[in-house]
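User: quick one
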Amino acid sequence: MDRKIDYKKTKKRLDGRKMDETRPLSIKTGVIENADGSAYLEWGQNKIYAAVYGPREVLPKHSADPLRSVIKVEYRMTSFSVPQRKRPGPNRRDQEISKVLGEALSRAVFVEQFPNTEIGVYVEVVDANAGSRVACLTAASVALADAGMPMRDMVAATGVGKAYGELVIDLNKDEEDAPDAVDIPIAILPNSEEIVLLQMDGLLTRKEWDAIAKLGIKGCKQVYEIQKKALVEKFELSEAKGKSQVAKEKTVKKKTVKKTVKKVKK
Amino acid sequence: MKKVVIPGEILFEERKRLGSNVFVSDGKIYSKVLGITDNENETATVVPLQGPYVPRRDDSVVGVITRENFAGYGVNINSFNECFIPKSAMRTPLSLGDVIIAKVSNVSELKEADLTFPKRMGDGEVISVNPVRSPRLIGKNGSMLDILSQGTDCEVFIGKNGRLWARNGDLELLKKTVKFIEENSYKSNLTNAVESLLRK
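Assistant: Done. Structure below.
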């Protein structure tokens, strides 16, 4: 990237966003029929599927916990999700992300309610452009709620950091590659503001850190509102209507239309 | 007023009688699951919209025989643990794939269910439904079950574990109606809607 770019002068980011503006985020639930709960998320260029199975029998059996359910997360990137082909098998990064996502979700789910079981969470990155782990965590949390898991709270996550001399939220790939880049994925339980995931690459001053933590929590709360909307919009609280009721309503509508047409003709 | 709530959403900030699927933190009452709540109710409770089947004592369940050994049979009751019935509890031997109905007599702390009064069901079909929505299939005092069995001329047994066993009658119409109830279980005026659906 060009080293002369300075966000303090431009006041706008490379993709035209404000410093505290996230990329457009949309979530859809119930996209995978065979899963107990699922979600599809688009966050900027990131496209992610999350599916939840369980609670079910733990395999291998030695990993079972007689006091709680074990949340097993599998984070995978498809080989075509990044500009250069990724080898399809799980690598060190995939294993690390699977582990931290599982730990973050375990804090949110009432795992004590399903002893000796596992909850399988599978997240597949179809298209990636920085911030895929926070996007996966956001999608996985929605999929868990969609599966009807008892939870303390949703897990809302976002990326924050520093790029081209300014503190920014939800870094894209160009910003992650900036010479002074600091990338901090952060995830919280929005009600208690308890931090369940926090990783960091790069260096920050104490003052910058204080500002960034506030920015991160603000971003997570924006994400939470979108998660909430995605889960609620599927269920419309109206009256159920049978076939004959619908047919009756249609005939009534037709009659009223005919009457109005007659009136107009007169 | 009825409202759809998500896990972790605040239901009440004041003290209230606690119902199911809620928890208290710092004196506030929160929802545990994705479900529907009515804030005019005296108790804070959430009716779940999705969720797994967790066995409870006295539940009537529909099970499928999945395993046989020297002492008895392994039964799948749509829960995360397999159940076991001893051979001595059955008059006639069972084979793999047989459908039984039984009652849950006890549930252990690991949520393992003990079954009693197993009864083999003859030829029929098992229909799977969302376990948290199966109470709507039964209705108040079995009202919906009566409408279903009379409207389709089927012999119907509904298990609390999200499985429905049926035989004779119009099974296709039954499946269609069950799907309709499942999809509209959280809506009001469901009984009338089902009656109008079954009216020919």
